[in-house]
Amino acid sequence: MISPDNVSALIGLIIILVGAGVALDRTRFGRHVPSAVAIMVVAIFLSNIGVTPFASKVYDVALAEFVPVGIVLLLFQTRLRTILVEARPVLLSFAIAVAATLAGVAVAVAVMDFGDMEAAIAGVFAATYIGGAMNFVAVSQLLSFNDPDLYASALAADTAVGATFFLSLILLSTLVPRGDPAQDALSQDQAAQNEAARPPFRLGSLLLVVGAAFIISWVSGPIAAAISIGQFSILVMTFLAIALANIFPRAIQQVRGVEDAGMSIMYAFFVVVGFGADFATLTGPALKFVAFASIILGVHIAIVTAIWLLFRLPLKELLVASNACVLGPATAAGMAASRGWSALVTPGLFVGVLGYALANFIGAGVAMLLGWR
After folding, report:
1. Average confidence (pLDDT) over 126-133
2. What 3-state DSSP class applies to 145?
3. Which terminus of the chain, N or C, has fewer Cβ atoms within 10 Å?
4. Are 130 and 325 contacting, i.e. CB atoms less than 8 angstroms apart?
5. Is 115 left (phi over 0), alpha (psi -120 to 50) or beta?
6. Region of 50 on the Ramachandran plot (φ > 0 left; ψ -120 to 50 alpha; else beta)
7. Which contacts (CB < 8 Å, 24+ apart) does range 30-36 have?
8. In the 8-state DSSP scheme, what is residue 137?
9. Per residue in 276-288, pLDDT tens?
10. Dihedral sign, Cα of residue 52, residue 55, residue 61, residue 62
11. 296: pLDDT confidence band, cut at 50, 70 and 90?
12. Can you tell me the distance from the alpha carbon of 367 to that of 373, in angstroms, rounded to the nearest whole number?
């Protein structure tokens, strides 16, 4: 119904769904069903019944330009003390998530048979579920996994199964206890006092901070390229955002609406991901890849859940680390923010970038262990 070139209609629909998600957060229903899940499911439904297109330049701009800005706005709430205290347990959880992915790959290889391409396929999926899409592309090229039909089918399966995995993590996050009611009340009272002490909302101040976020997002790419880490520009962006937040802590903390703006952009990310999930492509060869990816992520989530039940590690840290490992830093930060785990936004980004850095090596190693030449 809506063409890919209908920019106004697509932007309008994205904003409406974001607004619905924000409104849902403030309802009793929203306490039990995360807004990210609700709006993503609606977006998937709309695209798969033909209301919205599966691809559009609007989505490309949202993912490439606005999502980094949303991440920067959320990082503006970060203090170095938070990183030092919170990142350590997330690193342990991330190591568990990496091991869970590798166990899933081992099970999938044992259960399924891809013939001569098995080693390359296992390496590619190990890389993408420890790093991200860029690792999928990089390891595919490295291992000569370049048959157009197989490549397209594997990528479609990766996207669809990854979206389902993301929804599963969000639903699991509802099991995280809200904590002691008395302590929660004290925290809310403290938050209310802090909020009352801040200056009133000023649109000009918020626009200045949002503008600074766009500038940081813009300069991160050239800086990363200049120091020969162009593929890790998110690492430069994270450093600049945290540095600015800690150099001028009061100036940024006093601005109302910064976190809300970042959250809204991340909700838009969930909507766009939902719009791009084309389940009609999952036919023929793609179904075999769907089964392969489902086994990997099924084993992954089973191991993470078992670790939580057996050793009582904090579930929210395991889920953020699992998200960062399988889907990347942006979704990990978005999930942490959407669930109110603000202290885990930066650690989620950190381990997600770490996954990007390690995944190519791990994917190639998996392929070689399975006999790739």
Report:
1. 87
2. coil
3. C
4. yes
5. left
6. left
7. 32/174, 33/174, 34/170, 34/171, 34/173, 34/174, 34/338, 34/339, 35/267, 35/338, 36/170, 36/267, 36/270, 36/334, 36/335, 36/338
8. H
9. 877 776 666 778 8
10. positive
11. very high
12. 9
Instruction: Describe the crossing of helices 345-369 and 133-142 by its angle, rounded to 10 degrees.
Output: 20
DSSP 128: H
Spell out the alpha helix ranges (H) of 26-79.
28-32, 35-48, 57-61, 67-75
CA torsion sign for 98, 103, 109, 112 is: negative
Q: Which two tokens stand for residue 125?
A: 């999926």
d(CA 135, CA 293): 15
What is the distance between the alpha carbons of residues 170 and 130, in angstroms, rounded to a whole number? 19
Distance between alpha carbon 242 and the CA centroid of its chain, in Å? Answer: 19
Distance CA 162, CA 40 (A): 13
- The pLDDT tens digits for 201-242 are 788 888 998 899 999 989 988 998 898 877 667 768 878 888
In this prediction, residue 307 carries a pLDDT of 93
Counting Cβ atoms within 10 Å, is residue 215 exposed (0-12), middle (13-18) or buried (19+)?
middle
pTM for the structure as a whole: 0.67
